[in-house]
Amino acid sequence: MIAIYPGSFDPITFGHLDIIERGGRLFERVIVAVLANPGKQPLFSIAKRVEQIRYCTDHIPNVDVDSFAGLTVDYAKLRNAGVLLRGLRVLSDFEKELQMAHTNKTLWDEVETVFLATTKEYSFLSSSIVKEIAQFGGSIDHLVPENVARDVYTFYQEKVKKD
Ligand code: PNS
C-alpha cells in the first residue's frame, strides 16, 4: 500500500524524519508531499523544501518526495495512494488531526488516515519552534538534519544583513 505523508515541512525536522522512517517500514512506498499553500508565508520555497527532504531521506529506498497544490485527497488519488500518514505529538494535535481525517473521509470515503505516535523525544518539536530558536541565534543542530540547519542559519544570517 502507498501512503502519502502531506505537510508544510517548512522546514522538515527530526520529528518528521522519524515518521518518514517508520512509515517506510510499514508501507510499500511513502510519498512525502509538500503542500504549496498560498495562505502561508514560508521560510523556504517549495523547490528548496523538496530538495532538503530528498537529501535527508536519501537513505530510505521506498520514499519519494514531491509537491502538490490543492486537496490532499486529490493528490492521493493521483498517486494511487489509499493512506494519509500523519504524526501525533501531543493531545492538542489530536483535535485538528481528527477534524482533517474526518474531512478527508467526506471528500473520499476510501481514504484512510494512519497516525503514528511521534517518538517521545520529539514530542515538543515543530517547524515553528525551530524557526523561533534560529531567529534568536540559538542552535537547532539537535532538531533538524544537518543540511536543513545550514539552510536555516544562512536564511537568518542573510536576513540580519538585509534588515
Ligand atoms: O504540516 P501541516 O501544515 O500541519 O500540514 C497540513 C496539511 C498540508 C496536511 C493540510 O493543511 C492539508 O491537507 N492541506 C491541503 C488542503 C486540504 O486537503 N484540505 C482538506 C483537509 S483539512
Q: What is the fold's blueprint, element by element?
A:
Layout: E1 2-7, H1 14-26, E2 29-35, H2 46-56, E3 63-68, H3 72-78, E4 83-88, H4 91-107, E5 112-117, H5 127-135, H6 146-162
Parallel strand pairs: 1-2, 1-4, 2-3, 4-5
Bound molecules: 4'-phosphopantetheine.
4'-phosphopantetheine (PNS) binds at residues 6-8, 35, 71-72, 100, 103-104.
What would you note in describing this structure?
The longest helix is centred in the middle third of the chain and has 17 residues, at 91-107. Helices cover 45% and strands 19% of the residues. It is globular, with a radius of gyration of 16 Å. It has a five-stranded parallel β-sheet, sandwiched between helices. The model has no long low-confidence stretch (mean pLDDT 96). It has one domain (2-162): HUPs (Rossmann fold). Helix 4 (91-107) links the parallel strand 4 (83-88) and strand 5 (112-117). It has 163 residues and is α/β, with parallel strands linked by helices. The chain is built from six helices and five strands. The site of 4'-phosphopantetheine has 9 residues, from strand 1 and helix 4. 4'-phosphopantetheine is lined by residues 6-8, 35, 71-72, 100, 103-104.
* CATH-defined superfamily: HUPs
Name the overall outline: globular
Overall average residue pLDDT: 96
Oligomer: single chain
- Share of helix, binned: 40-55%
CATH class: Alpha Beta
Structural class: alpha/beta
Sheet-strand content, in percent, reads: 15-25%
Radius of gyration over all CA atoms, rounded = 16 Å
Strand order, largest beta sheet: 3-2-1-4-5
Total beta strands = 5
**Distance N to C terminus:** 48 Å
CATH topology group = Rossmann fold
